Structure formats: structure tokens, C-alpha cells
Automatic annotation (TrEMBL):
Cellular component GO terms, alphabetical: apoplast
This protein's name: Dirigent protein
Keyword Signal among UniProt keywords: yes
Source lineage: Eukaryota, Viridiplantae, Streptophyta, Embryophyta, Tracheophyta
Assembly: Homodimer.
Amino acid sequence: MAYSASYTFFIFNFLFFSISFSSSNGDVPDDLLESITVSRMEKTTHLHFYFQEVLSGKNPTAVKIIGDGRGFGTTLMIDDALTQGLGRDSKVIGRAQGMYSSAAQNDIAFLMVVTFAFTEGMYNGSSISMLGRNHVVDDVREMPIVGGSGAFRFARGYALAHTVWFDPNTGDASVEYNVSVVHF
Ligand SMILES: *[C@@H]1O[C@H](CO)[C@@H](O)[C@H](O)[C@H]1NC(C)=O
Ligand SMILES: *[C@@H]1O[C@H](CO)[C@@H](O)[C@H](O)[C@H]1NC(C)=O
């Protein structure tokens, strides 16, 4: 039984994932075949888009769900459009879905927990997960990419964000993102 389960796993890897694989030596007992290393070629992908946050009007894409304003603990749920160009009417290529919270007591820094879900082109249906600190007063903020799905399985990397436009009265903003990810 142990042999056949391992063997199935091995074939499964071979058929669906693997171009090349290696095992450390020829003496591996059959029931340790699961430890075979599957190696694939990594790619680096650079993505450039704009994050459009709308708090104003009848159809805001960012809604406060916790807290009393912009103070410590305030949390917003977002479903912001990601566009190809800077203008809000530019082509939508995905959504930034998730939330962010004011996470600094004596500063303006957010904990960002956001999925970039792509809806166009070769990345339609794939997503990237970002988790990090957004010290919004900095010109450029760096946040880690901690994973992904679809074309971005096993993704890791970083996002650079720069606020291009911000309306202090409404909180509406357009933020430029450059995302660099290594994935398979
Ligand atoms: C993206 O994928 C969805 C689901 O498969 C599909 O309905 C939609 O038409 C696709 N969009 C584009 C622009 O290809
Ligand atoms: C993104 O990359 C472009 C092209 O290299 C550059 O002009 C822009 O300043 C970058 N923006 C950020 C936020 O990194």
C-alpha cells in the first residue's frame, strides 16, 4: 500500500508539475518517495497598475468597518479598482480586495491585508497577496508580496506604492503600484 500511494504521488508530480526532478540517492525507501524534490524554473514578473480608492459619493469602494475615523484601530474594507492608467476611467484590469487598519499609535501607518485579483489578459483569474506596513507619509512605500494563486502560485516579492493623487477632503486617492514577483 505504501508503495502504491507513493508511486501515485510520484506519477502525479511527473504528469502535472514536473519537467525535471531529482532524488538525493538511489537508496531511498519506497515509502519516502514523497520527499523527492521537484524543481521548476522560476520567473520574475513586473506589474504596473494604479489603485483607485473612492470613499466619496454613492458607490464608495472603501468602507470604514471599525473605528471612529482615521485613529488607531480604524479599519476599512476595500474593493478598489486596479486600472492600467492613472485616470479613474482608465481600463480596469483587476480589483484590490481586502482591508487595512491604522496600526500605529503615534504615526500614520496602515497594516495592509490585500489581494490583487486580476481580471484581464493572461493573469485573468490569478491573484497576488500583499501583507505589510504602509507608512503613507513616505513618497514610496514597500510592502511584501507573500503569495499568490493561478499564474502566481508560490509568488513572493515586493510592491512599491506611490500616492499620485489624494483628496484630503474625501480621502479619495490614486496610488501607483509597481509589483515584482518571483513565481513558477
Ligand atoms: C476572465 O475570466 C472569467 C472567468 O473565466 C471570464 O468570465 C471572463 O470573460 C474573463 N475576462 C476576460 C477579459 O478574458
Ligand atoms: C514604477 O516604475 C516606473 C517605471 O520604472 C517608474 O517610473 C515609477 O516611478 C515607479 N513607481 C513606483 C511607485 O515604484
